[in-house]
Amino acid sequence: MGKVIVWLLVLALAPITWAGDTGDRERVERSRELSQQLQQQLGAELMAAMQAQGPVHAIDVCNVEAPGIAASLSTAGLVDVGRTAIRYRNPRNAPTAEQVAVMESFAEQIKQDSSVVPERLVTLENGEQHYMRAIVMQPQCLACHGQSVAEPIKQAIAEKYPNDQATGFEVGDLRGAFLIKWLSEE
Ligand code: HEC
């Protein structure tokens, strides 16, 4: 019961903190939009590839398209759009210690209430602002990130990502986070 009250308080106070700073609130909204665009475009490509040629080919699509779509939503020197995860597949998506801490708190929030999609805007010492929004495992992710990945898919993943850590997840688990890095003022 005590925990529930604490969470209600957190949820009630969170928007007030942002409302205090209009600049931050706008940035959160802009970041959320960019992360949703990445999510939608990637999801559409993935579904199309899975249906057309199956998961093994879809790995190629992820491998090429995921960084490509992220890059197309980024603006050099201004904003960098991407993804990260505690247990990552592509080492280029490796998180910093601070990002790990944010994702650990996201996982905790999802455990308390699976209907929330946690997000956070962090201001770094150098003035950069990093927005993160939780990525939660869906049924269509299991083929490549689940607990029992089929042998040909496993092999295709191992070829491209010999140090893959991104399997063993269940639906509803935190898989990672969208990471929108604001490198300077807009
Ligand atoms: C066809 C196989 C496949 C499916 C299905 C798939 N992924 Fe992935 N996923 C990959 C590959 C390959 C990468 C590495 C992409 C890269 O090199 O940037 C990846 C990377 C990621 C990353 C970036 C962090 C990291 O580990 O490098 C996240 C987050 C992620 N996937 C989440 C999901 C979610 C959520 C779903 C379901 C909606 C999903 N994936 C479905 C193959 C897949």
TrEMBL record:
Species classification: Bacteria, Pseudomonadati, Pseudomonadota, Gammaproteobacteria, Alteromonadales
Source organism, top-level taxon: Bacteria
Domain Tll0287-like: 35-181
Designated name of the protein: Tll0287-like domain-containing protein
Source species: Pseudidiomarina aquimaris
